[in-house]
Amino acid sequence: MDRTEESLRHRDTTPAPIALSAWNRLVQEDLLHVNPTAENLRRPVADVQLYDALDDQANVRNTVVLAMGVSCGSAGFERVLVHAADGEAAAVIVKARGTPIEDLRAASSRHDVPVLVVGDDADWTRLIAMARTAVAGAAVDSVSGVRLGDLFAFANAVASITNGAASIVDPSGRILGYSTVPGQPIDDLRRETTLTLQERTPPALDADFKVVYSSTAALFVQSPSGIADRLALAVRAGGELLGSIWIIDPGGERRQPALDALDRLAPLAGLHMLHARSASDFTERRNADLMRTLMDDPARASFAAAQLGLEFTDGFAIAAFALTHPNGGSLDAMREQHRLLQLVTVTCNVQFRSAYSALIDSVVYALLPCAGDSPRAAHRRVIRDIGSYATTISAHPVVSAVGGIAEQISELPRSRTEALRTLRYLMHQQSVTRENPTPQAPAAAVFEDYWTELNLLEIGKYITEKHLDKFDVIDAIRAYDATHHTDFLITLRAYFDSNANVSKAADRIHVHGNTIRYRITRLAEEFQIDFDNPTTRLWLWLRLVSTDLM
Predict the structure, then answer these.
(1) Which of 41, 105, 234, 345 could disulfide-link 355, Cβ–Cβ 3.0 to 4.6 Å?
(2) CA 489, 491, 496: angle at the middle one, nearest 5?
């Protein structure tokens, strides 16, 4: 047996007790310890159990007891605490359901049992799965030197054991980790999927994935011509499908040992994937909360920046990314939004060696560093690259925009506003382009590319909000055109766009110059427009331009 595999198996089958404080960190759920002391934080945790009110004889020594269905302050809660104290339990987890923390702290002290509070909306099934995963992780949060949840390191370990390049895939087809062991052969499919971090075909539509998912053992999967054969294993935890591991077939005498090794590693793979999913969910929620604080809450922005480890030496710019998906609230759209978040995170890591990104309200935000002599060139390059790569995650285009550079934390809300304004403008232009056979609108830009148009848009919004258009003639001309089937508004727009040059205006709308002169005369007479007054011309032009942009 391979030495790495032997170590992996030994560590997985003999989990050591872990201190309550370390276990709490590994669970990565929002658990509040109501009465932490140096002594109770060192309590060993060796198991996790659901409380059974009808089984007072259950052994709970060094066990975390989940008090499901018990309300704080009730007689049932007191029985749980007495049972936990008498049995030397490691801790009790309960939902507060409105009970003051002071009351919970008093109960914890009275029975000398650590009490941890979980949110009222927490899922007990998920919590017990993660709690047991943390126990299995043992005291060092690692298995044979591979940190729990580090799927890239785990893929390398699997590749070394099986002698084949390994990829770890979730049920939606995302590549969660892949091996980089030198000298192991790979094919074009492997190169493509590790570049895009996505399978070519969603597992739900792939016959090979369906066969693998239906098996409880590792399988040999024959591939089409030109693609290397694979060995594959469905990974589960507690009956839940977490994903699969795919190995490039080492062939010959190495195939069967590799299949056997995959079967032996199945429980360990489940442990890693379950922990990685929890860590990913926890990190995603945490990053979203901190990013939202940075952009929306100036009073707490410095704290959020410190939590993210930001150093404002050269400043940052907020980038915003969105899919032009027609059904933004659909399940498919939400999946693609999370793929976009992953793509943005990976690309920023490659470009800037750091990634601060979050999905908030269907928009992916990222903090782009501003180091170097030409930060805007780097910003343009990264959003252009993300737009190009996005074709691998969605059939719908990605629109990207970057706000101005924020040299201080307090300027980040302004950068976010600029990014969103630019993003919305580009998305509007995309929709206009789809409806009209005009040149393709740009899908990526920095704020200063369109600052004129964006400022005119703000002026237009101000005019509308303050009802400053109440007495002008633009709406009257539009209504007249609709009633009489005339083209006065189109003519007026062409006339102003051509700086009152009749010949150019005629060319713009493909009519004779005399037609322009006639219509301008009619406009002056019908709507009392003084075309000789520069202020009148400015106002009408401003109304037309701002309306067109909206």
Answers:
(1) 345
(2) 95
353 three-class SS: coil
The token duo for 49 is 């159990």
Domain span including residue 227: 143-278
Domain boundary among 94, 117, 137: 137
Do 373 and 431 lie in a common domain?
yes
Mark whether 264 and 207 lie in a shared domain: yes
DSSP 17-85: PEEHHHHHHHH-S-EEESS--TTGGG-EE-EEEE--TT-TT---TTEEEE-TT--TTSHHHHHHHHHHH
Helix intervals (H) in 353-411 = 375-389
Residue 340 and residue 390 share a domain:
yes
DSSP reduced 3-state for 164 = coil
Q: Give the largest Cα separation in the chain, rounded.
A: 101
| Residue in the structure block whose two tokens are 């539509």 | 205
pLDDT at 433: 53
**pLDDT recorded at residue 541:** 82
What pTM was computed for the model?
0.52
Residue 289 lies in a domain: no
Six token digits for residue 541: 């032009």
Dihedral sign, Cα of residue 107, residue 112, residue 118, residue 124: negative
Helices 502-509, 488-497: inter-axial angle, 10-degree rounding: 130
Read off the pLDDT of residues 407-431 as tens digits, 9 standing for 90 and up. Answer: 999 899 999 999 999 999 998 887 7
* Shared-domain flag, residues 312 and 453: yes
- pLDDT bracket for residue 283 (50, 70, 90): low
Q: Identity (one letter) of the amino acid at 379?
A: H
Q: How far apart are CA 488 and CA 496, in angstroms?
A: 12
**Surface-to-core class of residue 333, CB atoms within 10 Å of its CB (0-12 exposed, 13-18 middle, 19+ buried):** middle
- Of the three residues 137, 171, 193, the one that is the final residue of a domain is 137
Nearest Cα neighbor of 425 from 337, 320, 497 is: 320
Instruction: Report if residue 479 sits inside a domain.
Output: yes
Q: Is 119 helix (H, G, I), strand (E, B) or coil?
A: coil
Instruction: Give the pair of three-digit tokens for residue 170.
Output: 């979730």
Instruction: Tell me: do 324 and 274 sit in the same domain.
Output: no
Is residue 303 domain-shared with residue 432, that is, in the same domain? yes
Residue 441's pLDDT band (cuts 50, 70, 90): low
Please give the Cα distance from 272 to 133 (Å, whole number): 9
| Residue 367, pLDDT score | 93
User: Over the Cα atoms of the chain, what is R_g?
Assistant: 31
The answer as to whether 414 is a domain residue is yes
CA distance 458 to 424: 13
C-alpha to C-alpha distance for 504 and 497, rounded to whole angstroms: 9
Q: How many domains does the chain have?
A: 4
Q: Say yes or no: 541 and 443 in one domain.
A: no
Which residue type sits at 425? Y
Percent of the residues in the chain that have a pLDDT greater than 90, as a whole number: 27
Say if 396 falls within a structural domain: yes
CATH number at residue 483: 1.10.10.2840
Q: Is 128 in contact with 50 (CB distance < 8 Å)?
A: yes
Q: H or E segment at 128?
A: helix 124-137
Kindly state the tokens that stand for 74.
């009730």
Amino acid residing at 349: N
Query: 84 with 197, same domain?
Result: no
